[in-house]
Design a protein that fits this description.
about 475 residues; alpha+beta; Chloramphenicol Acetyltransferase; about 35% helix
């Protein structure tokens, strides 16, 4: 019997439209080795690792009459060259050209008639670098049965392409409509209530679908610390269009740790304080009225342990992500007072026995940040957009170099999706001594997202300068 999508996974397919594609992404920059790093080598590497994530060769097939949720089936026409694509910038390609391309690529929804992922090798970057841009649907990555492909394609040491031939992959026969109906009827006999809910999902709109899966969502995420009251109004909440902009900021992990050592809290507290300072400067640059009590509410997904699990690192993934609502004090002019406000707001989670330390997350096999950012996006998508202004995900990564084949990764920027009424989303990842911010903005409502990116770096400098004084 084919593997059926969970209610939550199916909801990401039901709710997707051309304006709000439901995928997450990443931009990894690599130093091309002397031996080269070609498109053919990348395809070979992907083919060798696909066996570790079988879902990446499967597509979603609906059940006739919507009598049950869709199922995952092997794609008999799977073509790795369709999913692993090649692009190039005019040499020497700049950061601005790369990130403009990223915004255009990520604005396009994935084809739901094929496996729900794409990867682009971008050549022509200055300094002999190449970039890898990934897109993965939120229905695909749940952290338990399926992880992000970035978690299996990277290694802690250079790996030359394996010379032995891979065993040919033989897809299982795709079930026909009759088989899918019989399976649905069999499940309905066991769970008759589900039939009513599945038929309802076929004839109601996205709002009703969201309400239908609300019960399942409660097992995935919980909001703590702030009552579910409407978020403050402001330019971050706008009706978004199809086009996207992408911008980045960079800083050093040692600098953020130095601020934490002087003023307490966690590195995550410092990251959110950096975001707070940048948002304050950005709002002022737009002529927004700010008072001492002005706040911007962020939805901050955080990893927690399973209360009944065995405490292992794999148990920290999957459905164990809690989303905290944090009021960022953009009205406070003093950066360290802002830090103390943020630390206080997150203290309930940081003191919780269920919270997962960054050091524990670093033990996850492979490069875990892409998977954890995806889980954060899933958590955010489960909330009403009326109760927060933006999403900020911060996932610690390994502090050692990683490689795709023989190409060393130098930077990694997460790319978070936008909801219908959120004009900005921020992903943060630390890696090999650096901290990398990826900002996704709506092209109309956040035309100055690159300005905000520069203000993030200025916000870090503000904290450092004040600390030295």
């Amino acid at each position: 019997m084919p593997d059926r999508l969970s209610a939550l996974d199916a909801s990401f397919l039901y709710l997707e439209d051309p304006v709000t594609p439901m995928h997450v992404g990443g931009v990894a920059v690599f130093r091309r080795p002397r031996s080269g790093f070609s498109y053919a080598q990348l395809v070979t590497l992907v083919e060798q690792r696909l066996a570790l994530v079988p879902r990446y060769r499967q597509k979603v097939v609906g059940v006739p009459g919507h009598l049950a949720r869709p199922v995952w089936v092997d794609d008999p026409d799977f073509d790795v060259a369709y999913h692993v694509r090649r692009s190039a910038l005019p040499r020497p390609g700049s950061d601005e050209q790369l990130f403009d391309l990223v915004g255009r690529l990520l604005a396009r929804p994935l084809d739901q008639n094929r496996p729900l992922w794409e990867m682009y090798l971008v050549e022509g970057l200055a300094g002999g670098h190449v970039a890898l841009v990934t897109k993965t649907h939120q229905a695909l990555v749940d952290g338990v049965r399926t992880i992000d492909f970035g978690q299996v394609i990277l290694d802690a040491a250079p790996q030359a392409p394996e010379e032995h031939a891979e065993e040919p992959w033989l897809p299982r026969r795709e079930p026909g409509g009759t088989r899918l109906l019989l399976d649905a009827v069999f499940e309905t006999v066991r769970r008759p209530r589900e039939l009513v809910e599945n038929v309802r999902s076929a004839v109601t709109d996205a709002v009703a679908t969201t309400q239908k899966v609300a019960g399942a969502v409660e097992t995935l995420v919980s909001a703590i610390g702030i009552a579910a009251r409407p978020a403050p109004s402001g330019p971050l909440n706008a009706t978004v269009g199809k086009a996207r902009l992408f911008a980045v900021a960079r800083t050093r992990l040692a600098d953020l740790r130095g601020v934490r050592a002087l003023h307490g809290g966690t590195v995550n507290d410092v990251v959110l304080t950096v975001v707070t300072g940048a948002l304050r400067s950005w709002l002022l640059s737009r002529g927004e009225q700010i008072t001492s009590s002005t706040v911007v509410r962020a939805l901050v997904p955080l990893a927690v342990r399973d209360e009944v699990g065995d405490g292992t690192v794999p148990g920290m993934l999957g459905n164990q992500v809690t989303a905290q609502l944090v009021d960022l004090p953009v009205g406070e002019p003093n950066p360290f007072v802002r830090l103390h406000h943020v630390s206080h707001a997150l203290r309930a989670h940081n003191d919780s026995v269920r919270s997962v330390a960054a050091s524990a997350l670093l033990r996850v096999g492979g490069f875990a940040p892409p998977t954890l950012h995806s889980l954060g996006a899933r958590a955010a998508a489960s909330f009403s957009q009326r109760i927060f202004n933006l999403v900020v995900t911060n996932v610690p990564g390994p502090q050692i170099p990683l490689y795709a084949g023989t190409a060393r990764m130098t930077e990694m920027f997460p790319v978070m999706p936008l909801s219908k009424h959120q004009a900005l989303a921020i992903g943060v990842t630390s890696y090999d001594g650096g901290v990398y911010f990826g900002l996704t903005g709506d092209r109309s409502a956040m035309s100055d997202v690159d300005v905000l990116a520069r203000m993030l770096e200025e916000s870090v400098e503000e904290l450092l300068t004040t600390a030295r004084a």
